[in-house]
Amino acid sequence: MKGWKLVETAIFIGLFFYVTYDLVSGFSQYSWETVSGKGFVSDFFDPISQKKEYYKSILAVIGIFIPIFTIWEIFVFLFSQFRNKEYPQAGWGKISAILRRTSLEYQPTFLASTLGGLIPKILMIDVFWHWLPWFQKYSFFTITFTWYNWIYALLAWELTTWLWHFGAHRIRIFWCLHSPHHAPQEFNMTVAWVHFFAEGYYTTVLQLFILMILGINPAMLVVIMSFEVMWGTLIHAGERSLKTGRLGITRFFVMTPSHHRVHHGRNPLYLDTNFCTLLPFWDWVFGTLQPLRDEVKLEYGITRKVVVTNFWDFYFGEIFLLAHDLKRAHGVKNKLLYVIMPPGWSADGPDHTAAKSRKDFLATHPGLSLAKKRTQFTNFFVTLARKVAH
Ligand SMILES: [Zn+2]
Ligand SMILES: [Zn+2]
0.85 exceeded by the pTM? Predict the structure, then answer.
């Protein structure tokens, strides 16, 4: 294992220089093209002159912030490492201390993104060429481009995001695929790069199926999905680039880095909350919206101990653990339950699910959630639904 660890560290050092260089050179090329009036960022000015396609301007602004934050965070991190007074002041001792800390911060995300980056593009092409036209056959109607239809499409998209993401946390087999995104114990922009390579595929297929039934126009989806990818990356801005990440009063209308930091927390209060990416709406409706509380200091990661510099544990650890539980379980029914019940569920032992931990915590700290407001709101819908049904 020690031999493998060395190989992993060596790969990481190479990747660190390569990816950082790629980021900086890509960004400077991007900026240069903008200055000379070409490229993606020129979209920022185009819609103003054309008085249409305003979303391009917003995409351009978010698009330029992403590399700025990512490069800035890496720069601030390295700077703080070289100035760290607790490390030996010179020589090999200092280099190895910096390397150790850099591995903990960036090794899992750089390695996972390199592996993940090789496959999804091919898979996503398949989603749009193969699945989408097939699902379209089942849509009874397709909405047109009016402003209220855009709101409908956005809410529908967010609902499907909430659904798959909730399932990814509450169904063990899907958690196996989602857990690498949560395994990093540091929070920075590069965490957005970590996804199990097959996850984007099954979630998009599921989302498209529901959205086609709901009559969403595929062209609208492309716009919303571009927003989602960009905003979904931006909300991983760590404390080094956006200190509180609360974004002022906008936090009531959009998901902020602060909301998403909570989603990455392993404190009982924060487990399985804030599943949305763009709007806090469905989290609010379903009672999973959780603001960051000053009383509960965030600890990032998942509840079991993960060695982030061991790629096998980091990326496949949950799959190994499920396999272990399946081997141990008696009877087909128990085996099946291990696959579909929430992580932490056990056939014979105590309940270690996130829902239970959160409930226990809130029983002793009732003022820290938003649960009360949700109950009234959900009750309203439940009563309305009953009235309609009768
Ligand atoms: Zn998640
Ligand atoms: Zn995330």
Answer: yes
Ligand 2 centroid to Cα of residue 12, in Å, is 21
Cα–ligand 2 centroid distance for 182 (angstroms): 7
Considering every ligand atom shown, identify the ligand nearest to the alpha carbon of residue 275 and give its number. 1
pLDDT value for 357: 95
| Residue carrying the six token digits 């999804």 | 120
CA angle at 90 for the pair 89 and 91, rounded to the nearest 5°? 145
Ligand 2 center to 184 CA (angstroms): 10
* Residue whose C-alpha is closest to residue 296's, from 374, 352, 369: 369
Residues of the chain below pLDDT 50: none
Extract the tokens encoding 13.
């050092």
Q: State the pLDDT at residue 384.
A: 73
- pLDDT score at 121: 59
Return the structure tokens found at 198.
């097959």
Structure confidence at residue 188 (pLDDT)? 95
How far, in Å, is the centroid of ligand 1 from the Cα of 100?
A: 27
Q: Taking each helix axis from N to C terminus, what angle separates 331-340 and 172-182, rounded to the nearest 10 degrees?
A: 40
Provide the residue type at 341 as one letter: M
C-alpha to C-alpha distance for 248 and 74, rounded to whole angstroms: 25
Could you say which DSSP state residue 265 is in? B
> What's the distance, CA 229 to chain centroid?
10
Q: Measuring CA to CA, which residue among 196, 189, 167 is closest to residue 235? A: 189
Residue 300, beta-bridge partner list = 265
Of the CA atoms within 13 Å of residue 161, those in its CB half-sphere come to: 23
How many other CB atoms are there within 10 angstroms of residue 101's CB atom? 16
Say if residues 70 and 26 touch (Cβ distance below 8 Å): no
Ligand nearest 235 Cα, by number? 2
For residues 280 and 370, the answer to whether their CB atoms sit within 8 Å is no
Strand partners, 265: 300
Give the ligand with the smallest distance to the CA of 260.
Answer: 2
> Nearest ligand to the C-alpha of residue 179?
1
Centre of ligand 1 from the C-alpha of residue 178, in Å = 7
Do residues 201 and 120 touch, judged by C-beta distance below 8 A? yes
Share of the chain above pLDDT 90, in %: 55
